[in-house]
Structure formats: structure tokens, C-alpha cells
Amino acid sequence: MLRSLGINGLSIGVESGDDSTLALANKGYTAKDIIEQCRKLDEAGIEYYFVYMTGLAGKDKGYKNAVNSAKVFSKVNPRFVHVDSLTLFEGTELYDMARAGTFIPAGEKERLEELKVFIKNLHIRTHLFANTVSNFYPVTAYLPRDKENILSELQYILDTVSEEEMLEYRHNLKSLG
Q1: Which of left, alpha, beta for 15 (phi over 0: left; psi -120 to 50: alpha)?
Q2: Model pLDDT for residues 20-53, shown as the tens digit of each residue
Q3: pTM for the whole structure
Q4: Secondary structure element (H or E) that encloses residue 11, with its range
């Protein structure tokens, strides 16, 4: 039906492929649903683009989110994967949960480590863009060709930039909004 309407591409804000993170974000679907629906898009010849969000799983849960999301994304064919890093804004449910202590945001280094784990475990040909202001370090890559270089760059940033410097960057983002 979408194809008959002339739609040949969709941007899908899946944000995660990890069921517990999808439930936390009230996405209304599971990793299995993502795979099933994207296979239908493949059959219809409709390209799709994913958005992945580092930090969405919360403190100490980024590794699991990254591995599970990469597994799901690797089972389908997103032409592009766009990565944003979670920024909490007043008036959102996660912001309220963070204020109440029921959601503990991931630190900045953890988010970069999550991005690194996500890229390491992504086994598809795709363009990856993590180059918006929400990302401390901008990344643009064609995978798998650029994988090792990007992983090395991310490790260098993790080794040389402090959590405090990254937090200052995040703080300045919020003051711009």
C-alpha cells in the first residue's frame, strides 16, 4: 500500500533494538516487531533509515542496549543509521523520571562507549551518522569499511577527554535550547 502511494523511503525512529529499552521508552513494539516490519519494507522495495539513541537505556545499561540493538539492526537493511545521544528536556517523561530518581541517565563516557560497542557489533553495510550536536564527538562512517578507524577514534576520545569536559559540552547544549 505504501509503495502504491509513491512512498519509497521511511525514516524510523526505533531508537533501540533492546526490548527493555523499548519498553522504558514506551515505544509500543519489540525488537521482533522491528525485524518483521522491516522485512515487509524490504519485500516492498522501500528503503528505510533508523535512528538509534545512545543513553536511552540509562546508567550501566548502554552495553546491553548497544549489543542487542546491533543484533537487531544487523538482521535488517537500514540504508542509514543516524545516532543521537539522549538529552533530557523538561516536560518529557524521562526528564520527570530522572528528577524522581526512577531513571538514572548514563554518563557521557558511557554513551561514547555505548556508541563504540554498537558500531563494533553492527554487521551490515550501512552509512552511520552520529554527527548532530547531541553527540560529543561527531562520527560519519560507511560500515564495515570505516569500522576499525572509527572504533580507534572513539577509543582515543575515551582515553583523552574527561567526563567533566563531556558534561560541560552537554550542559552547554541545554542552555542553547
Answers
A1: left
A2: 999 999 999 999 999 999 999 999 999 999 999 9
A3: 0.93
A4: strand 9-15
